[in-house]
Design goal:
Helix content: 55-70%
Distance between the termini: 78 Å
Shape: globular
Structural class: mainly alpha
Largest sheet: 2 strands, antiparallel
C-alpha cells in the first residue's frame, strides 16, 4: 500500500499552532532575508497538496480493488474519472492492460534516471536532469520523504580519511543540491505558515506543511556533519560541490541558529577557508603562478583540472562552464601554449563560479556576520574586501557587502562602547 501521508512527523507535531511551528528559526533575520509571502506561494502549496492527494486517492482505489491494473476503457480503479480516465486512455493507446506502480517506486526510478543523466557525456541530458531535480524533490517531500533520506545518507560523505572509499562526484553533487532545495522549500513553507495567508488553506494542508517543516528541522542536525565533509580537501570533490556546501552552511547559520550553534566555530572556519581558497583560484593569473614558482621562498599555486558537471539546474542563471576540482592536483607543466590556455580556462571557470556563489550568499552575509564573534569577523573582512574589489557591476551585491562590512565595524565598536560605559566611574 502507499506510504502514509506523514511518516516522519507525529500527529502531535502536526497539530501544533503556527506560532509554535518553527522555534529554531531566527527571529532577528533582516527583512531582505525573509521571502515575500504572496498568493502565488499559497496557491503553490495548495497545488502541490492537491496533486499528491489525487495520486494517493488513485493508488488507494486501485489497492482496494486488488490489483494495480487499468483495463482498457474501464477507467481503472480510480473511481471512473480524472486521472483514472487518463491512465485508461494510455492503456488503450498501448493496446494492452497497463500496470500502475505505486508512486514511491515511480519516484525512485525517476531519481535513478536523473542520476544517470547527470553523469552522461551529453550536456543537454545533464541540463534537463538538473531542471527536473527540484520538482522531483518537492514531490518526494510531499509523498515519501524516505526517498530523500536514503539519497543523502548514501551519497553524502561519511568518512574523510584519505583511505576512504571515493564517492561519485556527480552523485554527491545531486545529493547536496537536493538537500539545498529541500531546506529552501521548508523555509518557504515555514514563512507561509507564520503568515495570515495560511489560514485560507485547508486544515489538512496546514498540518502536512507543518509536518514537512518539522521533519526538515529534525533531520538537519544529523546531516550537517556530512555537509561539513563536503569541504574536506582530502576528498578532492568538485568546487561546485563545495559551493553548495557553503550555501547550505550559511543558510543554516542564518535561519536555524539553534541547529548550527554546537559547531558554529568549526563551520565558520571551514566557510572562510573555502571562500579564500576559491578567491585565490579565481583571481591569480597564470603569470602570477609562474613568477611565484621562480621564487624558491614562495610555494607555487596548483592549477585545478576541469570536469563536466553543469553549474546550475537553471540554465538561465549562468552559461554552463567546465567544472573545477579542488586544487589538490599536480600542476601542469609550465611553458606550453596548451598548458597556459588550460590555466586561463580554469581561472575563468573559478571566477564564474565565485560570481554565481556570491549572488546566492550575498543577501545572507550581513546576518551571518552579525552571528559571528569578533575574531570570526576578522576572518571574513579580507574576503569581503576582495569581493568589493572584483565585483563592482552589481549595485545590490555591493550594498549587501557594504552592509556586512558595516556590521564588522559597528558591532564590535558598539560592544566596546557598552562595556566602557558600564565600567566608567560615576561622576
Amino acid at each position: 500500500s502507499p506510504p502514509s501521508s506523514n511518516t516522519s512527523a507525529s500527529p502531535q507535531a502536526a497539530r501544533r499552532s503556527p506560532s509554535a511551528l518553527s522555534p529554531s528559526l531566527s527571529p532577528s533575520a533582516s527583512p531582505r532575508l525573509r521571502s515575500r509571502i504572496s498568493p502565488p506561494a499559497q496557491l503553490s502549496v495548495r497545488g502541490e497538496m492537491s496533486l499528491i492527494e489525487t495520486l494517493r486517492a488513485e493508488e488507494d482505489s486501485a489497492a482496494e480493488s486488488g490489483a494495480w491494473r487499468v483495463s482498457p476503457g474501464g477507467g481503472g480503479g480510480g473511481g471512473g474519472g480524472g486521472l483514472g480516465e487518463d491512465l485508461a486512455d494510455v492503456a488503450v493507446a498501448a493496446g494492452a492492460n497497463a500496470m500502475i506502480e505505486p508512486l514511491s517506486q515511480v519516484l525512485e526510478r525517476m531519481l535513478q534516471d536523473v542520476l544517470g543523466c547527470v553523469r552522461h557525456v551529453r550536456w543537454e541530458l545533464r541540463r534537463m536532469a538538473l531542471q527536473v531535480l527540484p520538482l522531483l524533490c518537492v514531490t518526494a517531500l510531499w509523498y515519501d520523504k524516505g526517498i530523500l533520506s536514503r539519497l543523502w545518507l548514501r551519497y553524502l560523505p561519511h568518512d574523510v580519511t584519505p583511505g576512504a572509499s571515493r564517492l561519485d562526484p556527480a552523485f554527491t553533487y545531486v545529493a547536496a543540491l537536493t538537500l539545498k532545495e529541500v531546506v529552501k522549500k521548508s523555509l518557504e513553507y515555514a514563512e507561509l505558515m507564520g503568515s495570515g495567508l495560511a489560514q485560507a488553506l485547508p486544515l489538512e494542508s496546514r498540518n502536512r506543511t507543518a509536518g514537512i517543516v518539522h521533519w526538515v528541522e529534525h533531520t538537519l542536525p544529523s546531516l550537517l556533519p556530512l555537509v561539513e565533509n563536503l569541504l574536506a580537501s582530502s576528498l578532492r570533490l568538485p568546487l561546485r560541490v563545495g559551493s553548495l556546501a557553503v550555501q547550505l552552511l550559511i543558510l543554516v547559520h542564518c535561519r536555524f541558529p539553534a541547529i548550527a550553534s554546537p559547531r558554529q566555530r568549526e563551520q565558520v572556519l571551514l566557510i572562510t577557508r573555502w571562500l579564500a581558497h576559491l578567491q585565490a583560484l579565481a583571481h591569480t593569473t597564470p603569470d602570477d603562478q609562474n613568477s611565484a614558482s621562480k621564487d624558491p621562498s614562495t610555494p607555487a599555486k596548483r592549477t585545478p583540472r576541469c570536469d563536466a558537471i553543469p553549474l546550475s539546474p537553471y540554465p538561465s542563471a549562468l552559461s554552463p562552464t567546465p567544472e573545477l576540482h579542488d586544487a589538490q592536483h599536480t600542476p601542469s607543466p609550465a611553458g606550453g601554449v596548451g598548458s597556459k590556455s588550460r590555466e586561463w580556462q580554469s581561472k575563468r571557470a573559478a571566477e564564474n563560479l565565485e560570481r554565481a556563489l556570491l549572488k546566492q550568499i550575498c543577501p545572507l552575509l550581513p546576518d551571518l556576520i552579525a552571528s559571528c564573534s569578533f575574531d570570526q569577523m576578522l576572518l571574513f573582512t579580507p574576503i569581503l574586501l576582495q569581493y568589493l574589489e572584483h565585483y563592482r557591476e552589481d549595485s545590490d551585491t555591493d550594498l549587501e557587502l557594504l552592509e556586512a562590512l558595516h556590521r564588522v565595524l559597528h558591532l564590535p565598536l558598539s560592544c566596546w562602547n557598552t562595556s566602557a560605559a558600564g565600567t566608567a566611574p560615576s561622576g
